[in-house]
C-alpha cells in the first residue's frame, strides 16, 4: 500500500485545523492509501525563527504589526498559570491531545530538517492539506511549501489556502519556486487560483475544503449523539475582535430568548469575549465542536470551518468578516468563495443589520445538500486522480 505523508496543522489548537486533518486522513485512507502525519514539534524553533525574520521586514505595515502584537499578548497570557485564561486554554488543549491520539497516526519525532527530509523520502507521496498554509509567514517558514520533500517524491496540494488575495512582492520568487515543484495543485479560494496563475501561469482547480468531503452522517463518527448542552442556544465562535458582531448576537438573543453559548478566544485572547455569553465551555474538542453546531438554533461566526459545518448540518447561521473588506491582508475571501458556490451570499453580515430582517432568511437544506454533494464528488475525483497519476 502506497504511503502518503501528510503536511497539516497538528501543533495548534484550532477546530478547523484538527477537523480538516481528520477528514484528509480519512478520505485518503478510503481511497486505498496509508497515511502518516509529520510531527514537527522538534522543528518549531527553526520554523519560528524563519517567521520572525519575515515579520521583522513587515513591522512598518500596521495590519501585520497589530497581528504580531495580539499574538504576543495572547501567548504571554497563556503562560500565566494563575490566569483563568491560561487554565481554560489548558483544558481545551487536553481535548485536542486526546483527539489526535485517538484519530491520527504520526511519524516518529524528528529534531532537524535533514531527518524530516529523510523521513519524507520513505513516502510515495507528500500531501499538504487545507487551512491558510501558504500564508506569507508560513511560506517564510518553509514547511508547508514541501521544500523538505525530495524531488523524486510526488507532491500534492489539496485545497490549500494563501489566506489572502495579495502576497507580498518579497515572497513572489520564493512562492514561484516551491509551487513549481508541486506536481498537483488545488486551492480552496478563487483568490488562491488567481495567485497561482499570476506566479506560475498554471490553471488550477478550486476544490472544496477536506471537511466537506465527508457527509453529515460520516461526521457523526467522532461526536456524541446527545446534545453537549441543554436547552435552545445561539452558538458563537469568533476569531476576530469586532464588537459590533457580538452586539448583533446579543440582539438576536433578545429577539429569540435563546441563551448564548460562546467558544471564546478562537485565535487570540479577546477581552470583550469574556462578557457577553451565558455559557463558555472549554472542555470542547473537535467532536464537541461539531455537536454544538449540529444542535444550535443559530450559529454566529467569522470562522470558515464553523460556517462549513453549519452548511453540512443545515443549521441556521450568520457569517461575518473577520478583517476589513478590501484590505490587502484580508482573509475574508475563503468565506466569500464558500458562500458564493453554495448560493448563501446573503448570510454574510456586518453586525449592524436589523435582526428581524435577517431572521427571515432560511436555508433550503435539500438544495444546499445537492450543491455540496456535487462539489464533493468533483473534489474527490480530483484528489483520486492526483494520487493515482
Please supply descriptive tags for the structure shown above.
9 strands, four-stranded parallel beta sheet, globular, 389 residues, five-stranded parallel beta sheet, alpha/beta, 15 helices
Description:
With 389 residues, the protein is of the alpha/beta class. The protein has 15 helices and nine strands. A five-stranded parallel sheet has the order 2-1-3-4-5. Strands 7-6-8-9 form a four-stranded parallel sheet, sandwiched between helices. The radius of gyration is 20 Å and the shape is globular. The two termini are 15 Å apart. The model has no long low-confidence stretch (mean pLDDT 91).
Count every helix, treating DSSP H or I runs of 4 or more residues as helices.
15
Distance between the termini: 15 Å
The biggest sheet, with number of strands, parallel, antiparallel or mixed sense and barrel status, is: 5 strands, parallel
Beta-strand residue fraction: 5-15%
C-alpha geometry: globular
Helix coverage percent: 40-55%
Number of DSSP E strands: 9
Structural class, by secondary structure, is: alpha/beta
Helix-strand pattern? EHEHHHHEHEHEHHEHEHEHEHHH
Give the neighbour order of strands across the main sheet: 2-1-3-4-5
Low-confidence stretches: none
Taking all Cα atoms into account, the compactness measure Rg is 20 Å
Would you tell me the overall average pLDDT? 91
Amino acid at each position: 500500500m502506497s504511503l502518503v505523508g501528510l503536511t497539516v496543522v497538528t501543533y495548534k489548537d484550532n477546530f478547523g485545523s484538527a477537523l480538516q486533518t481528520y477528514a484528509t486522513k480519512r478520505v485518503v485512507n478510503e481511497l486505498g492509501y496509508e497515511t502518516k502525519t509529520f510531527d514537527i514539534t522538534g522543528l518549531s524553533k527553526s520554523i519560528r525563527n524563519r517567521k520572525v525574520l519575515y515579520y521583522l521586514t513587515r513591522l512598518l505595515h500596521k495590519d501585520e504589526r497589530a497581528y504580531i502584537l495580539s499574538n504576543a499578548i495572547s501567548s504571554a497570557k497563556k503562560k500565566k498559570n494563575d490566569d483563568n485564561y491560561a487554565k481554560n486554554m489548558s483544558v481545551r488543549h487536553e481535548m485536542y491531545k486526546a483527539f489526535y491520539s485517538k484519530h491520527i497516526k504520526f511519524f516518529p519525532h524528528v529534531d532537524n530538517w535533514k531527518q524530516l527530509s529523510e523521513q519524507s523520502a520513505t513516502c510515495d507521496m507528500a500531501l499538504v492539506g487545507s487551512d491558510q498554509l501558504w500564508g506569507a509567514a508560513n511560506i517564510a517558514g518553509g514547511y508547508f511549501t514541501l521544500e523538505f520533500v525530495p524531488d523524486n517524491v510526488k507532491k500534492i496540494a489539496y485545497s490549500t489556502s494563501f489566506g489572502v488575495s495579495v502576497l507580498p512582492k518579497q515572497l513572489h520568487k520564493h512562492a514561484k519556486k516551491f509551487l513549481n515543484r508541486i506536481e498537483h495543485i488545488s486551492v480552496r479560494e478563487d483568490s488562491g487560483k488567481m495567485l497561482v496563475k499570476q506566479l506560475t501561469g498554471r490553471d488550477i482547480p478550486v476544490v472544496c475544503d477536506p471537511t466537506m468531503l465527508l457527509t453529515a452522517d460520516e461526521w457523526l463518527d467522532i461526536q456524541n449523539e446527545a446534545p453537549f448542552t441543554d436547552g435552545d442556544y445561539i452558538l458563537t465562535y469568533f476569531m476576530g475582535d469586532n464588537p459590533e458582531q457580538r452586539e448583533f448576537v446579543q440582539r438576536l438573543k433578545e429577539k429569540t430568548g435563546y441563551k448564548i453559548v460562546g467558544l471564546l478566544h478562537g485565535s487570540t485572547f479577546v477581552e470583550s469575549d469574556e462578557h457577553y455569553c451565558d455559557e463558555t465551555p472549554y472542555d470542547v474538542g473537535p467532536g464537541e465542536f461539531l455537536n454544538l453546531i449540529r444542535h444550535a438554533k443559530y450559529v454566529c461566526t467569522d470562522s470558515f470551518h464553523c460556517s462549513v459545518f453549519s452548511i453540512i448540518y443545515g443549521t441556521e447561521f450568520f457569517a461575518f468578516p473577520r478583517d476589513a473588506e478590501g484590505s490587502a491582508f484580508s482573509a475574508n475571501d475563503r468565506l466569500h468563495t464558500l458562500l458564493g458556490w453554495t448560493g448563501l451570499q446573503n448570510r454574510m453580515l456586518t453586525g449592524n443589520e436589523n435582526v428581524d430582517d435577517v431572521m427571515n432568511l432560511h436555508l433550503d437544506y435539500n438544495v444546499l445538500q445537492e450543491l455540496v454533494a456535487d462539489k464533493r464528488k468533483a473534489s474527490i475525483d480530483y484528489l483520486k486522480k492526483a494520487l493515482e497519476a
